[in-house]
Amino acid sequence: MSASSPSADDAALQFTPEFELLRRCAARVCGQPLPFENVAALDPARVIRTAQRHRLIPLLRKFFFEIPGSEALTLPLESAYASSLKASLVLTAAMLELHEKFAVAGISAVPVKGPALAAQIYEGEFLRGFDDIDFFIPEASFVPAHQVLLRAGYVPMFELTRGQWRRFTRYFDEVAYRHPDTDAEVDLQWRACSPAYSFAPDCSKWFGRLGKITISGREVPALHPDDLLEFLLIHGSKHGWARLSWLMDLARIIASMPRERLSEWLNLPGCRKMRATAAALASKVIGLPAQSSSDAAAPLVERIIEGMQSGPRELANYDLFPKLMDADADRKRYRYETTLRPTPWEWQLLPLPGVLSPLYFVLRPLRIVAKRVTPNPQF
Amino acid sequence: MNFTLNSRIEVDPAAVYQKVGDEIVFLHTGEGVYYSLNPVGSRAWELLLQHQRLQPVIDAMLDEFDVSSDTLRTDLLRIVSELQEKKIVRILPERR
Question: Which of these, A100, A95, A94, A93, lies nearest to A112 by C-alpha position?
Answer without folding.
Answer: A95
